[in-house]
Write a structure and sequence with these properties.
There is one protein chain. The longest helix has 15 residues. The N and C termini lie far apart (40 Å). By secondary structure, the chain is mainly alpha-helical. It has one domain. The protein contains two helices and no strands.
Length: 83
């Protein structure tokens, strides 16, 4: 049996910011987990509808998640292929 180790970082991490990976590291990570990167083409219809901004309070982001998702559902029209 052959064992492989994916080495992307100099030290072990429990979380990784994908946006901070360079192209080679991202490709290695995608390959390691057999993931495929795809693109999505969207069209945005102009609107003059006024929307009050979402109100962030002292809660952390996890606590705002459900409220923010509902806010987005109420104010954005999203097609099924974008969900």
């Amino acid at each position: 049996m052959v064992s492989y180790t994916l080495v992307i970082f100099k030290r072990a991490r429990s979380t990784v910011a994908i946006s901070k990976l360079d192209e080679r590291e991202l490709i290695d990570l995608l390959d390691w987990f057999s993931l495929v990167r795809t693109s999505l083409t969207i069209s945005i219809q102009p609107t003059s509808m006024r929307v009050e901004p979402f109100e962030w309070t002292g809660k952390n982001d996890d606590q705002h998640k459900d409220q923010y998702e509902q806010f987005l559902r109420n104010h954005l029209q999203v097609t099924k292929n974008m969900r």
